[in-house]
Amino acid sequence: QFEILKLLTGLHCAILALIIACAGKDTKANATDSANGEQVYKKYCVICHGQDGKLGLNGSKDISVSLLTMDERIALIKHGKNAMTPFDGILSEQEIKAVASYTMQMK
Hints:
Elements: H1 2-22, H2 27-33, H3 37-44, H4 46-49, H5 70-79, H6 93-104
């Protein structure tokens, strides 16, 4: 019984150590934790919306006059519309929220 108890204690310690070691090691989460909405915008959005959100290329809307709420912007970025690429699966949830927040400042 002592050997089994010793083995179980060791196993619990190993599992706990693994959990602690993996905490914060999610590279996608860590990369997106520092996601900057402006950088995401410049990488994916500026080509159609322009630096100031007013370009209107490929039928894109003028972000500077948009009345969309934050939740509506997040949904639009995730699912796209007309010629706009749906970014769900391309951008992380945090990147989507960051770029949506950035566009709110373009008014």
